[in-house]
């Protein structure tokens, strides 16, 4: 696996500039929705429980950014037993965070999902083995025990195995990497911003691991994106646009103010009675910055790029995981911001 190098954030070079930014931030927080404009109630279901993977949304809620955009937002409980797609389907959520593979699979099956903004621009998923297992390549996993998460998160590795003609012994992987650490499986599924760091924190030296990044295997699958049902967008396009804009603003604020963003995330984690390790959450937020920011300054933040969309759709169709996928323009509302 190549070495990921996080982008270093620049600090304000002088007190005067800092003062201007503080005044701007205060003025923005102080400005409510336009007088006489009714707030629109909306709800969001993330992919998982509160953590820095979703910092931008919690920051936008806590700092009143959604309110300034005229949205009275509620972030719904997520995690085990809660499906973002089902929440969209049954109307209990207006917006949800989904992977592109998930959205395309459900779209192929008749659920008309559309992408409003794409936060993670490249795959952060890894397949990790210990070097003493003798597994160096995807081909080496043939017949070996591989931990896979349930549901939609298993789609990317299954697509990779299908493409390379590899048949693995699938083992259900829970929300921890304990099974891998105890030697119960040969290969673990992991995210760069989460489980990989957890493995290192358990005392395993990076040199003891063989890490295969799906990105480097030609499976660059954009992950966390903001989705809604097509009928929701058509019913109130202004709300959909405002939600995407406010969410992107929340992420920009979180990346520019990481310590404050971590305070906010940890507050919501404790409220949900979830253990909070600040060092791990900082790692996660930093990696989200690396994965979310465009590599080219001329690119549009939050844009689902057509080349990535077509590559993923084609790979899933060739692997037999979907029958078809719609035209990019019909699927990606984020493309409108690039025009």
What report would you give on this structure?
With 339 residues, the chain is of the alpha/beta class. It has 2 domains: 15-122 and 222-338, 3-Layer(aba) Sandwich (D-Maltodextrin-Binding Protein, domain 2); 125-217, 3-Layer(aba) Sandwich (D-Maltodextrin-Binding Protein, domain 2). The protein is built from 14 helices and 10 strands. It has helices at residues 15-30, 55-62, 65-68, 84-89, 100-108, 155-164, 178-181, 195-201, 230-235, 237-256, 258-271, 278-292, 306-318, 328-331; strands at residues 40-45, 71-75, 95-98, 113-118, 125-130, 145-148, 169-172, 187-191, 209-213, 225-229. The strands form 3 sheets. Strands 2-1-3-10-4 form a 5-stranded mixed β-sheet, sandwiched between helices. α10 crosses α11 (258-271) and α11 (258-271) packs across α12. The radius of gyration is 20 Å and the shape is globular. The chain starts with 14 loop residues before the first helix and ends in an 8-residue tail after the last helix.
Short summary of the structure?
This protein is of the alpha/beta class and 339 residues long.
Low-confidence stretches: 1-32
* Strand percentage: 5-15%
Order of helices and strands: HEHHEHEHEEEHEHEHEEHHHHHH
Terminal CA distance: 35 Å
Cα Rg? 20 Å
**Largest sheet properties:** 5 strands, mixed
Give the strand line-up of the largest sheet. 2-1-3-10-4
Number of helices: 14
CATH architecture of the largest domain: 3-Layer(aba) Sandwich
* Structural classification: alpha/beta
As for the CATH topology of the largest domain, it is D-Maltodextrin-Binding Protein, domain 2
Q: Which homologous superfamily in CATH is the superfamily of the largest domain?
A: Periplasmic binding protein-like II
Number of beta-strand segments: 10
Helix content: 40-55%
* CATH class value of the largest domain: Alpha Beta
Principal-axes geometry comes out as globular
Provide mean pLDDT, rounded. Answer: 86
What is the total domain count? 2
